[in-house]
Design brief:
alpha/beta; Rossmann fold; nine-stranded mixed sheet; six-stranded parallel sheet; 20% strand; globular; glycogen biosynthesis; glycosyltransferase; Starch_synth_cat_dom; transferase; Glycogen synthase
């Protein structure tokens, strides 16, 4: 089966979040299930700069015009990924990141940029490439969500499309006057397609047009059917519920492997947990923390309300009072950054903060910290807790979405059954988080029980094996219907 994957970011070429990890890991995982996947990605300058000697892209198609500008498709293989790069300089050759300019603001023409990505994907699905046409298209998030809309309004037999929603809070909504630039017929600006309360809704249109909608965990698939989590799209999802399925994410266990991770100070596995002490020592030095011999908690996150970082800031005194330390890697809302900076200044040697994102440091935090805190108010899947399981960094998570699906709470029954892998708390608030921290600190003081909890997490299968099989089965069903 030949599948075209369409994503706005793909690890290891460009990454702002978990979407990149998923798009980068799925192709290899699916290969074991008889699926060959090519990935369409914008040719951002950062992507082209990461291609190595011997990876010179070759031109495989030229678009006469893509929204009035020249564009072409380049084919290249990079670290096992079969890539099609959309080289459209007017859309993607600019400073800044994939979505934001150098000042941290949305690129004003994001609607045009990612409509261009979607239109290119649709043209590939319709057969614009010589000698290759996909049996199915798998698109990710709003940036690629217009692909099935273009196909619906195309003239050729339609290729099945799977749309994966990684976070329904990000919907790609733009003013109505942008519609005239999208190369869609007037009929597409209708409540049944891309029109959304008088605006253009990329994700909404994709959800309506796709043959199947997936989310990144079973619990999140249930949650987004409710007003609390559906972000205004719960009605459409309810109407298409028979096409909605939750498939939990996995991680690339080759990239995330403490036994051979080149980014960490000392390698270890479940039989050599004592070696983690060397990584903990290196982490304390990196964050300039003084070892209290209490638990070293960590956070790797966007510093936002959704991620519960205000709750984290509120419980920092509790971490200190219980003899703990905290190392934070992240950036986000200015107010939350300021709160954590104040805490680091108030508790020198106990709280460390590194602003921004640093891939090697994120690995070092998982390898050296005792526990990772994920107090998200909602979390479609989350990968951070899976990395924590893999590295023996015990997750403390809010009971929501994929966090609830992937972490087994260390209650008495689960501990006695040797099934526990971390700590859950609910409802999501300051006091329940405090209680979870107290439970964790209490268990940390019993090293044999803590080691059992770490070992059980490290034995958990967090790979893509099972989930890739579910995707392959879904693809097969859709292609058979076609």
């Amino acid at each position: 089966m030949q599948v075209l994957s369409v994503a706005s970011e793909v690890y290891p070429l460009i990454k702002t979040g978990g979407l990149a990890d998923v798009a980068g890991a799925l192709p290899e995982a699916l290969a074991a299930h008889g699926v060959t996947m090519r990935t369409l990605l914008p040719a951002y300058p950062a992507v082209l700069a990461k291609l190595r000697y011997g990876e010179e892209p070759r031109e495989v198609h030229v678009f006469e015009t893509l929204f009035g500008n020249p564009a072409r498709l380049l084919a290249v293989t990079h670290e096992g990924l079969d890539l099609l790069l959309l080289d459209a300089p007017a859309l993607f050759d600019r400073p800044g990141g994939p979505y934001l300019d150098t000042g941290g603001r949305d690129h004003p023409d994001n609607f045009r940029r990612f409509a261009g990505l979607s239109l290119a994907a649709a043209l590939i699905a319709e057969g614009c490439l010589k000698n290759w046409r996909p049996d199915l298209v798998h698109v990710h998030d709003w940036q690629a969500a217009l692909t099935p809309v273009y196909l619906r309004f195309g003239r050729r037999p339609q290729t099945p499309v799977v749309l994966t929603i990684h976070n329904i809070a990000f919907q790609g909504q733009f003013s109505a006057d942008t519609f005239q630039e999208l190369a869609l017929p007037p009929a597409a600006f209708h409540m049944d397609w891309v029109e959304y309360y008088g605006q253009v809704g990329f994700l909404k249109g994709g959800m309506r047009a796709a043959d199947a909608i997936t989310t990144v965990s079973p619990s999140y698939a249930e949650e987004i059917l409710t007003p609390e989590f559906g972000m205004g799209l719960e009605g459409l999802l309810a109407a298409r519920q028979e096409r909605l399925v939750g498939i939990v994410n996995g991680i690339d266990t080759n990239v995330w492997n403490p036994a051979k991770d080149p980014m960490i100070a000392a390698h270890y596995d479940v039989s050599r947990l004592e070696v983690r002490k060397a990584n903990r020592k290196a982490l304390l030095e990196r964050f300039k923390l003084v070892d209290t011999e209490g638990p070293l908690f960590s956070v790797v996150s966007r510093l936002t309300w959704q991620k519960g970082m205000d709750l984290l800031a509120a419980v920092i005194p509790d971490i200190i009072d219980q003899g703990g330390m905290l190392a934070v890697l992240g950036s986000g809302d200015a107010e939350l950054e300021a709160l954590l900076e104040e805490a680091a200044a108030l508790y020198p040697g106990r709280i460390g903060l590194v602003k921004g994102y640093d891939e090697p440091l994120s690995h070092q935090l998982q390898a050296g910290a005792d526990s990772i805190l994920i107090p998200s108010r909602f979390e479609p899947c989350g990968l951070t807790q899976l990395y924590g399981l893999r590295y023996g960094c015990v997750p403390i998570v809010a009971r929501t979405g994929g966090l609830a699906d992937t972490i087994i709470d260390a209650n008495e029954a689960a501990m006695n059954a040797a099934a526990a892998t971390g700590f859950q708390f609910s409802p999501i608030g300051e006091d329940p988080l405090r209680q979870a921290l107290r439970r964790a600190v209490k268990l940390f003081k019993e090293p044999h029980l803590w080691a059992r909890l770490q070992a059980q997490g490290m034995k958990t299968d967090v790979s893509w094996n099972a989930s890739a099989g579910r995707y392959a089965a879904l693809y097969s069903t859709l292609c058979a219907k076609g």
